[in-house]
Amino acid sequence: MPVNELKIQTHPESYSRFYLYLTVFVAGMTTLAVEFTTSRLLQTVFGTSNIVWANVIGLVLLFLTLGYFLGGRLADRNPYPRVFYWLVSLAGFCCILFLLLTSLILRSAATAMAAVNVGAIISSLVAVFFALAVPVTLLGCVSPFAIRLAVRDVNEAGRISGRIYAVSTWGSILGTYLPVLLVIPLAGTRLAAIVFGSVLLLVGFGGLWQDGRRKNLAVLILPLILVPVIIAWSGGRIKNNPDQIFETESAYNYIQVIRQGDCNFLLLNEGQAYHSYYCDEGRVPRISVWSIMLAAPFFNQGTSVKDIESLNVIGLAAGTIPKQFNRVYGDIAIDGIELDPAIVQAGREYFDLKEPNIDVIVGDGRYELNQLDRKYDVITLDAYKVPYIPWHLTTREFFTEIRDHLTGSGVLAINVGRGPGDRRLVEAVTATLLTVFPSVYTIDVPGSFNSIVVATAKQSESNNLVEALNNMNSDTHPLLREAMKTAADNLVPTVASEVIFTDERAPVETMIDSIVIRFLLEEGASGLPGLSG
Questions:
Q1: Which DSSP letter does residue 272 get?
Q2: Which residue in 13, 71, 266, 516 could disulfide with 141, CB within 3.0 to 4.6 Å?
Q3: Which ranges of the chain have pLDDT less than 70?
Q4: What residues make up the domain containing 217?
Q5: Is the pTM of this model over 0.70?
């Protein structure tokens, strides 16, 4: 038989090809929505490291591959629309059921993470693996099955399959942006799972309704099963922390505020470090990472408190740095840049971020800095998303932009992470700074895995800090005196590596991944320092 006479054997039931395309579109959207929702669920416990993202993406691709294979075989054996739409309905059902189950599992994992219970953490990861396998595999079955139903003549096989994959990709594009930018920030991850799973479930119902067979009414058992599951598993807190007074999900982070004693602490994502704190009446309970930054201007010879008139904070969080600068240096002009508006809102409500001299700018630190034409006496950089510093905030080009925003005697203070005996990131940042600034100093923050790296716009000496401390009078603010003493006592030799970060090449994430893996292999999870700032 000539090729142009070959026909594809399909079931004689009538069905709408347009509705088939709609189904593929919704399935593509749901697939990406499931991926992003899963990553956000994991983010609340395991953070936003490249390893977490790689595992999510890798598992999704693995299960989609399995789904493509199984879907093709199923379609050849049962090329019936009613089978296809039962499959679609089941996929929507499983998206809701298993993502809510994942949320429930991770709620227990969060408690295990806080207690550093390695066995419970591993068990949770295994459970999440199997929970993710079911909905994603079913979603992978949709496209090959849809192609089998849509192609009626081999002469149109290429055109139809191309159209199916195009429509699926269009849906995936919507599934990339819609959950992250709209549904999750407004409703949270659990409701996002319910929303996208329900849409797919309804599309499956529509396909079965077109079939017109009464026995398809059995599909209604799926929502009946889901109703009690949704009621039981979608409510309550994302994390069961007894000290928690607030939590929310933004487009960027899971945000949590806990209260211990008379202080509020800001935690993000996995919650293994706090990113801001505020104690009643503005009390500063101890010298922290942010307190040590107060000492940075005194690496310049002859600096006095009155010389500091302006500050730019890249990585404002809930405002701990500018608040402490206000206490020491008075109501100086402060620009604070923060990427996440939800963190700023939490700062205003729970951290008393209301000072009129603090101008809050919401946006990316590098971009927003370059929109400002002011020069600053001090710029601080604390843009951690534990354990990472955004790579574009570590490069020679960015440090050049910072230098151009400093006064002639300005200083830059950066919070940089390290491992025990592993200072590669600190040394690389130091080497990069030395290509732009004449003098760079390193202060190890006691009791933490943090170092404050200070760079001065003009030539300076470390002895200047010690001399300034010795020459302070009785009018010096106690917080500044303690910060300078801590800085002076914990100065370490400045060591630069051969690695220089540039906009062209900045392997920051790779270096941090290596530091984290080495630390876990050598120290184990029990070596984690817990909350620190």
A1: S
A2: 71
A3: 1-15, 47-51, 108-125, 127-128, 385-387, 520, 522-533
A4: 3-233
A5: yes
